[in-house]
Structure formats: structure tokens, C-alpha cells
Amino acid sequence: MDERYSRQILFSGIGDEGQRRLLAARVLIVGCGALGSAHAESLARAGVGQLRIVDRDFVEPSNLQRQTMFTESDAEQRLPKSIAAANHLRQINSEIEIEPHILDINYSSVERLLEGCDVVIDGTDNFATRYLLNDACVKHNVNWIYGAAVGSYGVTMTIRPHETACLRCVFEEPPPAASAPTCDTTGVIMPIINIVSAVQVSEAMKLLTGSIDDLHGSLMQFDVWRNEWRRIGTGSPRPDCKTCGLGVFETLSASAESAAVLCGRDAIQISPSQPTRLNLASLAERLRRAGEVKFNEYLLRFKTGQFELTVFQDARSIIRGTDDIPVARSLYAKYIGT
Ligand SMILES: [Zn+2]
């Protein structure tokens, strides 16, 4: 242990005691795309004793430009991301425990996955999952680190339930469906991934080693193309916050389920988490770069590979070509955006 972690132990913020704490810790990594790859590699090398990695997708060639956990061979085999990541992480550090899960984190699985975890780190690509994590982490008093990146822009914030503002204290509701750009419609460059993940991982290491005073305590925003860096103070928990003030965890109930299998039609229906009215013309404009689009004033049809997404004005979508809910949710998050 001393040899492997010697340079990190020399660092005054960690030391022998900090390293012991890292080795005894368990971190839940939610989503193993670009951010999750960086989290997993950094935390494995740092010697976090147990990494639980959850992802619903498999590796595709378009991931390789920024998702550093994966190789061409993983993409050729279409391996599930959590499995491919575990294979590589075991070669990087065979002394820690890696626990991969191929699943869609939702109201029925999130609390089980959280069990025994000291910190949760966000590598997801959608707000529906982040509000779910916020509810579950506040309910069970687990620290979590929000992070997101698209284009050249990224954002991160560390949430310590009842000590700091939570995600809902800062953003009362998630953005409406199809209102925010996604990596699959707008693109993304790797440097912003490195920055957001570096801040998230540093925060995880501070939390795990008990260096609470060194946390940045803000909403941090970066744009590496426009050269903008901002820190906005997030303050204390809001007493009127639905989640951390009033203790209402609406995303954890079965009624929050947004997906339904349409029997015998090889299709899934996904409903948005809140009512909205889409501008189908601007969604069509965004999707044109990613596949074939047709629309009228009532609905939009988008084809990508074997799948066809029909999107209605209320942001409800029927996804044809699969009867697998995680696959449908993944397509919705990538192309419509939640
Ligand atoms: Zn709150």
C-alpha cells in the first residue's frame, strides 16, 4: 500500500490517515459515460476500497472520443459499460473491490444501490436521475456530487444533506423535457469532462477524508471554449425546499414511474416528469444533426439506427424498436433530454 499510494500519502491533505479512510470507503458512481469513466479511474487509482458502478448502456464507437474507460474492442463487443469498466479497473487496481451493475437506476433500485455508500458521484446524462439521486441522498443522509457537461460547458455542486443547499434548493424543478442541449444533439469535447470530473473527484476525496472545510461550497460553472469560470454561492438549506426542508421525496414513489411497455408493439412510452409544451420545430432543428426528422404541428418523428422516436407536443414519446425500458429511457435522455 505504501508504495502504490506513496505520493498521495505525502500530500498533506491526505496523509496516512486519509489513505486509510479512502481504502475503507465505498463510493456509488451513477452513470459510467464520460464523467463516470473519469470518476471510476481516478477513484480506483486513489485507492477507494469499494466502487459500485451503475450504468444502463453498452459501449458504442461514438463513446471512444471522451469515455476513457473504453477501448475499440469494448465497442466491437458492445459490452455493457459497467462490465467493461470493471474489467479495466481490475487491471488498474486489483486490491480494491469493483461492483458493476447493469441497470437503470430508478425509484425501485436507487435506495438499495445507496446502501452502505459514503458518497454518491453523478455521472448521469439527465435531470430525471439527478432529482432521483437528490431525493434518495437527502432521505438517507448521503453526500452526493452533482456534475454535468455538454458542449464546452460544465457545472458541478456538492450536496451534504441538511448542511448545504440541495439540488432542489438551487433549482426548484428540473428543466422541462427537450429544453436543454444534450451531448447527442449538441456534441461535447473532452476537456470539459476533465475539468468537471476533476472537481467532483477532489470533492469526493475531501468528503471521504473528512476535509469538510476544504469543500468549495458553491455551484461551479466552466466554459472551456468561451473561457468563462464562475462560482456562485449556494448557501444553506432552504426551509421551504420540498426535498430537504419538507421531506417530500416525490421521485421515490411508484407514481413517478415515467415509462410503460406498449404491449405487442415493440415500443415503450416515456412521459415527461412534469407537464410541458414543446416547440417541435426547434427540437427538429436540433435533431437534424443526429438523424432523420419529420414533423408537423402535432408530432415529430426521429429515426436513429433501428429506433424510431415519435414525440408529441406534451413531450411524451413513443419509442419503437425496443421493449426494453432502460434502452428507451437512454434514447429519450440522449435525444429529447430530461
Ligand atoms: Zn433542499
Structure report:
- This protein has 338 residues and is α/β, with parallel strands linked by helices.
- 33% of the residues lie in helices and 22% in strands.
- The chain is built from 12 helices and 14 strands.
- The protein has helices at residues 6-10, 15-23, 34-46, 72-76, 81-92, 110-114, 127-140, 167-170, 183-186, 190-209, 280-287, 325-335; strands at 26-30, 50-55, 97-102, 119-122, 143-150, 153-159, 218-223, 228-233, 259-262, 267-270, 292-295, 299-304, 307-312, 317-320.
- Strands 3-2-1-4-5-6-7-8 form an 8-stranded mixed β-sheet, with helices on both faces.
- β1, α3 (34-46) and β2 form a beta-alpha-beta unit.
- α3 (34-46) packs across α10.
- It starts with 5 loop residues before the first helix and ends with a helix.
- The structure holds zinc ion (ZN).
- Zinc ion is lined by residues 165-166, 168-169, 237-238, 241, 243-245.
Question: What is the residue-averaged pLDDT?
Answer: 94
Strand order, main sheet: write it out.
3-2-1-4-5-6-7-8
Shape: globular
Following the backbone from N to C, one meets helices and strands in this order, namely HHEHEHHEHEHEEHHHEEEEHEEEEH
Query: SS-based structural class?
Result: alpha/beta
Gyration radius, to the nearest Å? 20 Å
Present as ligands are: zinc ion
**Can you count the beta strands?**
14
How does the major sheet shape up? 8 strands, mixed
What is the percent of helical residues? 25-40%
Strand content: 15-25%
Number of helices: 12
Model regions low in confidence, pLDDT < 50 over at least 5 residues? none
Q: Gap between N and C termini, in Å?
A: 43 Å
